[in-house]
Design a protein that fits this description.
The complex is a heterodimer. Chain A is of the alpha/beta class. Chain A is built from 15 helices and 14 strands. Chain B is built from eleven helices and four strands; from the N terminus they run H-H-H-H-E-E-E-H-H-H-H-E-H-H-H. Classes of the chains: A alpha/beta, B mainly alpha.
């Protein structure tokens, strides 16, 4: 009895040692730790980030990896909770020895991890969180933002809306940070660009509000020219359905950030309202270039669905990691960061650059309006107006001021 | 004469009340008779909505599809609840409420992940059936969605059916008796276990029905359960635990204070129904109507 116990213990220890050793000696890979929400509503967006990233990694590894090393990744589900997310990030860095972190869809988690990577000197690629603090006042040299934030989206929308003849604006939205941030950023920029714009009222509903009809009848009675609707997540679809049912979409035009995006329009099929203004960073059908087509085909072949915005940020994160190390010529964090600054590489939407001063990816923003299409069984964005990254991103000086 | 704006807002509030009432009455029924604070009630509502999505897809999104969903989805939810009741809850009726609360909470998590596995994380949308599409100008030309008129009719129909069930049928009478004194009902030779099963299933069926009815107006998505369950519990508490008419009254107060609150102060419209709950509980801590607890 005693003997067998001793045997088991020594066996367990032997295996434990070999696995420990293997992780120590097998630094022949580049390890990327991904912390994101993989349960609940946010999966609508996070799965695209992961799948886009996987697609690129498989391609890179098939070609022999980066400087002879394969990219390896591990995912952790933060369950949309900052404390869990931070613990996962720590585990990935300290135990799994991740060289790079990426994620998350939760701004609070992202900010928590941001503090941690600053101390640990680990590059962190932000793929979906929208808080402008991430790259603004809380930004530092280890953080890379691969998507737009509320400040950028708001400014881009304001640039496009300022050219329209609307005067009386109503502001409505989900009563949480994202909603208020989008609304404030659109409105404050719009007022600067078009001094004639005036606000006639506001309504705010709770996140996850199921029925918008009472809000809409109230807005209709006030007769504004235009409504800025700052909804996020499933509220996007909920509002559009209510706008269609009440006839709001035919009477008063309105804007929602990402209203023209596939995740909002596809589920509604032909029943989505036409004439809704929105902004988005990516469409699988626009720009109609061979590069984008090739990316869409590859993505569709692998996952049997069209890529959305998250897919692009996931894909580009892997591409930038690979190209960054190649340019640096060695697997070294500081060298990677230096290499990535002001680096441009080709992407499905044209050449993209990571701005040196704040590590923000310069993505073009598309402003458009929903319209039925003969080609698809769902509505698409039409009259697309491209707003260049340089026009809607805060300037380097502004970012410097924020980071003080 | 009430201004048309307020009138319109009241009716919108009433139609919103319908879904809240249907779901909350199911919750209240289970709470009153079985004494289970069923946190998974919201999940069953969500499953109802997702099933409605699948059924309308299968039947080609036409007119008939919606009516099929209205029948099939609640039955499907009822089936799930029957399995849960026979397989699990029937052994736990004597346990403490806190235990049951935790158990049903666990169920809500399990159901949430099952829904994700079956239907995926994407938003789903159920189209409004063709005859209910669009809106009619009512109350001084303000548009009123036709689907909301349908809801305004559906609410009272369900209420009447529930009244008939609890007051005019034998099972309803037994259930009411069992709610007061379970052992006594058992002592006169009635199989209480099955009565409880039927009541549980009917309560859950109402959750499923609420899910189908709400589906055309919202995006069917993960997380819709959590939003609803809190409101449903507040309504049940406000109305009096276990009292179906209390649930109706609570839903009415909840829906109308919200829609009128929006009219008065749109920035803070969300506060009003919760304020109403506070006021009610301050003056009537056991709820507006008689609680069965």
């Amino acid at each position: 009895m005693k003997k067998s116990l001793f045997l088991t213990i020594s066996l367990v220890m032997f295996f434990a040692m070999t696995t420990v050793c293997s992780t120590v000696y097998a630094q022949s890979t580049i390890k990327v730790g991904i912390v994101d929400t993989y349960t609940g509503p946010p999966t609508t967006f996070t799965m695209d980030v992961l799948d886009g990233f996987k697609l690129a990694v498989n391609k890179i590894n098939a070609k022999g990896g980066v400087l002879g090393k394969k990219i390896e990744y591990a995912t952790r589900d933060e369950k949309f909770k900052p404390d869990i997310g931070l613990a996962m990030a720590k585990e990935l860095v300290l135990k799994e020895k991740a060289d790079i972190l990426m994620g998350t869809i939760n701004s609070a988690t992202t900010l928590a991890i941001s503090d941690f990577v600053k101390k640990e000197k680990i590059p962190f690629f932000v793929t979906f969180a929208k808080s402008d603090k991430i790259i603004g006042e809380k930004g530092h040299q280890y953080i890379f933002n691969m998507n737009e934030n509320t400040a950028m989206a708001g400014r881009a929308a304001a640039i496009a809306l300022a050219k329209k003849p609307f005067v009386k604006y109503w502001i409505a939205g989900d009563d949480y940070e994202y909603g208020h941030a989008i609304a404030d950023n659109v409105w404050n920029n719009l007022k600067k660009l078009n001094p004639k714009a005036q606000k006639v009222g506001e309504s705010w509903w709770k996140v996850g509000e199921a029925d918008f009809t009472p809000y809409i009848t109230q807005i209709l009675a006030a007769k504004p020219d235009f409504i800025i609707v700052a909804t996020g997540g499933s509220g996007m679809v909920n509002f559009q359905k209510a706008a269609k049912a009440t006839g709001l979409s035919q009477k008063i035009p309105f804007y929602q950030h990402t209203a023209i995006e596939l995740s909002v329009l596809k589920p509604q099929g032909q029943n989505a309202p036409e004439g809704v203004y929105g902004t988005a960073n990516y469409f699988f059908y626009y720009p109609d270039t061979p590069a984008n087509k090739a990316f869409v085909d590859e993505f569709k072949k692998a996952y049997n669905r069209e890529p959305r915005i998250g897919a692009l940020s996931g894909y580009m994160t892997a591409m930038f990691i690979a190209e960054g190390y190649k340019k640096a010529g060695k697997i070294n964090t500081e060298a990677l960061i230096k290499a990535l600054e002001d680096m441009s590489i080709d992407s499905p939407v044209g050449s993209l650059t990571i701005r040196g001063c704040d590590h923000q990816l310069e993505l073009p923003m598309y402003f458009g309006v929903t319209k039925k299409s003969p080609k698809y069984d769902f509505l698409v964005a039409s009259d697309i107006q491209v707003i260049g990254a340089k026009d809607y991103m805060p300037t380097c000086e502004e970012v410097k001021m924020l980071r003080k | 004469m009430i201004p048309p704006g307020i009138l319109s807002q009241i009716f919108v509030g009433l139609s919103r009340t319908t879904i809240l009432f249907i779901v909350a009455s199911g919750l209240s029924l289970i709470l009153g008779v079985l004494r289970i604070p069923n946190v998974a009630h919201g999940s069953l509502y969500m499953i109802g909505a997702f099933t409605a999505f699948t059924v309308t897809k299968i039947f080609g999104e036409g007119q008939a599809a919606f009516w099929m969903a209205l029948i099939i989805a609640p039955l499907f939810v009822a089936l799930i609840s029957l399995i849960a009741e026979r397989g699990m809850f029937q052994f736990l009726y004597e346990r403490e409420h806190l235990m049951l609360l935790l158990l049903t909470f666990a169920f809500s998590l399990v159901f949430g992940d099952l829904v994700k596995l079956v239907w995926g994380g994407e938003y789903k949308s159920v189209p409004v059936p063709a005859i209910f599409q669009g809106f009619v100008p009512l109350f001084g030309g303000l548009p009123f969605p036709i689907y909301n008129i349908f809801l305004l009719v559906a609410g009272p129909v369900v209420a009447v059916l529930l009244w008939l069930l609890t007051n005019k049928t034998k099972i309803g009478k037994i259930a009411r008796a069992a709610a007061v004194d379970r052992e006594m009902v058992g002592a006169v030779g009635i199989n209480v276990s099955w009565v409880f099963a039927i009541v549980f299933v009917i309560g859950c069926l109402l959750a499923g029905l609420g899910g189908v009815l709400v589906a055309p107006t919202v995006s069917v998505t993960l997380g819709m359960d959590h939003n609803l369950i809190i409101e449903a519990f507040l309504i049940v508490i406000m109305g009096g635990l276990g009292n179906i008419w209390g649930a109706m009254l609570g839903a009415l107060i909840f829906g109308i204070t919200q829609s009128l609150g929006i009219l008065v102060w749109p920035q803070f419209g969300i506060v009003f129904p919760y304020l109403a709950v506070v006021v009610v509980l301050l003056f009537r801590p056991t709820g507006l109507l008689k609680s069965t607890w």
